[in-house]
UniProtKB/TrEMBL annotation:
This is Lipoate--protein ligase A. Pathway: Protein modification; protein lipoylation via exogenous pathway; protein N(6)-(lipoyl)lysine from lipoate: step 2/2. Gene3D superfamilies: Bira Bifunctional Protein, Domain 2 (3.30.930.10). The lineage of its organism: Bacteria, Bacillati, Actinomycetota, Actinomycetes, Pseudonocardiales. Pfam families: LplA-B_cat. Keywords: Ligase. The keyword Ligase applies. PROSITE patterns: BPL_LPL_CATALYTIC. One of its GO terms (molecular function) is ligase activity. The keyword Ligase applies.
């Protein structure tokens, strides 16, 4: 069995980044995989969410901000270059055969990252909080062969940018609706770190949790899944608007 690795990849189109995010899981790695990435301005809804309940679609259209859909559950998030995304893909069973708990693993990773940066935090409802403000949001996706957990980490994204594109909590809450919380970035907490410094902290925390990571390019299997998912989901408008796949 290969050891844990960090895959290095970046795509210009946010939809292509989302496709690669899922491809890492579909490729069924035998050991943990870490991917650290960023998107240009975009809004990303959870797998089963309704755009009209989550997103100010008219404002997004006016500003040229695409509204996209990911494969995992969880709530709607705003992405921009000041928001770091951390993906952790795990085999379905740990090295000793025990069942893996992806949210716990991700929570441990992000808590250690923020501690490495010198900021106290607490785990809350599907995310990491500093005081009452959410700093990181979590979501998970499972297949028969593995588990994907990913997190946003607000490095410098201003809270008002998030509020510009996301709706307030609906008056008639439904199970798949986002759980709205105040948000604040590292910068808004007075921690003015660059993306490179925050990325280094993620790597330190991941190595302590998973063991030394080998840095690598995407595998042939990951790239094959990437192309397939681009065709069936992420380059298919109905996937983003309704969650429908191209057959």
């Amino acid at each position: 069995m290969t050891g844990p690795s960090e895959v290095v990849a970046a795509f210009d189109d946010p939809a292509d980044n989302l496709a690669f995010d899922e491809a890492l899981l579909r490729a069924a790695p035998e050991a943990p995989v870490l991917w650290i990435w960023r998107n240009t301005d975009s809004v990303v809804v959870g797998r089963g969410q309704k755009i009209e309940r989550e997103v100010k679609a008219d404002v997004c259209a006016s500003d040229g901000v695409p509204v996209l859909r990911r494969a995992s559950g969880g709530g709607t998030v705003f992405h921009d270059p000041g928001n770091l995304n951390i993906t952790l893909v795990l085999p379905g069973l740990g090295l000793s055969g025990e069942a893996v708990k992806p949210l716990e693993a991700l929570g441990e990773l992000m808590t250690a990252t923020v501690a490495e940066l010198g900021l106290p935090s607490r785990l809350g409802d599907r995310g990491l909080f500093v005081g009452d403000a959410k700093l990181c949001g979590f979501a998970v996706f499972r297949t028969r062969t593995g588990l994907l957990a990913h997190s946003t980490l607000l490095v410098s994204t201003a809270a008002e940018r998030v509020g510009r594109y996301l709706t307030s909590a609906p008056a008639d809450p439904r199970p798949l609706d986002s759980h709205r919380s105040p948000v604040a970035s590292l910068a808004e907490h007075g921690l003015r770190k660059g993306v490179a410094e925050v990325t280094a902290a993620v790597r330190v925390a991941a190595a302590a949790q998973l063991g030394e990571l080998t840095t690598r390019k995407p595998s042939a299997g990951e790239l094959e899944w990437h192309r397939s998912l681009q065709r069936t989901r992420y380059h298919y408008p109905e996937w983003h608007s309704e969650g429908a796949q191209r057959t």
